[in-house]
Design a protein that fits this description.
13% strand, single chain
């Protein structure tokens, strides 16, 4: 499955419908419609993206909602929890180095750090804060749409920023999206993988940026809304075997105890079997086997000698008896 987690939502529904239909033809399965907020968060946090959309969409395409907040002042983040509840995904676009560090290290709850790669940043992307963001489950997003329909300077900035980001993260925790306002700026998944190769992103990492990493963002965002401090919803899936009425619980308890005891015995036996023998133990066992073989061979010789002596004695007794009779 391929994901495009940044498709700007516009009031031009005809163009948006063409973009979604084209993404479905290219092979994408999940698309997130993004609403961009710049500046101070308003009191009205209602999402302007209607659900469902007022036009038909491809059946194979899953539509999500997303809010991208440009963070210029790191102190204005006290309403992020309320904002995250209105959208499936919450992304932060830092405009300064201080905002980027706060988004990487402590800002919560966010799902994505979306960097505007069309501009030239006055600072370098450092590995330590970016690695800390990846460790706590926040992914970094690169949008390629500006490199297709943008100016020459924007394309140079995109290549430079993407290359620097890939080098700082070593290709880990990166999500690639289109941010395409028109269908003309969309590209197929394998074209995007080849585009990432030009930034230094390997083929496997490129496929993960459109698949596994993007899916992880969606799953983590949905889990935050359906769980509380690590407690998740448990769905009853039925029992393995139907218990008989009357005494079913007692039998089940007895089976658990027996299985636990048997499991402990099996573990001990497995440890004995799988325990490797030392060279000294192997020599000792080989010597013991040779000694036992020698003892058995000596016993057989003694038996054969005893049998021959007995036969000779029996022959002598028979001879003496014949002489006496004569």
């Amino acid at each position: 499955m391929f994901y495009d987690l940044n498709v700007p939502y516009t009031a031009n529904h005809a163009e948006l419908q063409r973009t979604l239909a084209f993404l479905a033809e290219l092979g994408y399965n999940t698309v997130a419609l993004s609403h961009h907020i710049t500046g101070k968060i308003s009191s009205d946090l209602t999402s302007p993206i209607p659900a469902p959309l007022p036009f038909p969409t491809p059946k194979s395409l899953r539509i999500l909602t997303r809010c991208t907040l440009t963070l210029s002042d790191p102190s204005q983040n006290h309403r992020l929890s309320s904002l995250a509840a209105e959208y499936t995904i919450l992304a932060i676009r830092p405009a300064s180095e201080k905002g980027l560090q706060q988004a990487c290290l402590s800002l919560s709850p966010i799902d994505l750090i979306s960097l505007d790669c069309s501009i030239r940043y006055p600072f370098y992307f450092r590995q330590k804060p970016l690695g800390a963001a990846i460790e706590r489950g926040v992914r970094l997003e690169i949008c390629y749409g500006v490199g297709i329909l943008g100016t020459g300077e924007q394309r140079r900035n995109l290549i430079g920023n993407a290359t620097q980001l890939v080098r700082a993260t070593r290709g880990r925790g990166i999500v690639i999206s289109s941010e395409a306002g028109r269908a003309l700026a969309c590209r197929g998944p394998w074209d995007v993988v080849n585009l990432g190769a030009g930034w230094g992103l390997g083929r496997e990492r490129g496929v993960e940026a459109l698949g596994r990493e993007a899916r992880g963002v969606v799953v983590a965002a949905e889990m935050k809304k359906s769980s509380y401090r690590g407690v998740v919803d448990v769905v009853f899936g039925g029992m393995k075997g139907e218990e008989k009425e009357g005494g079913g619980e007692g039998k089940g308890k007895g089976k658990v105890k027996q299985s636990g005891k048997r499991k402990a015995e099996d573990d001990e036996l497995r440890e004995e079997v799988e325990k490797p023998l030392s060279k000294r133990e192997m020599k000792r066992r080989a010597k013991k086997a040779r000694m036992e073989g020698a003892i058995e061979a000596g016993d057989e010789k003694d038996k054969m000698a005893g049998a021959s002596v007995k036969a000779k004695a029996d022959g002598d007794v028979a001879t003496v008896n014949e002489k006496d009779e004569g």
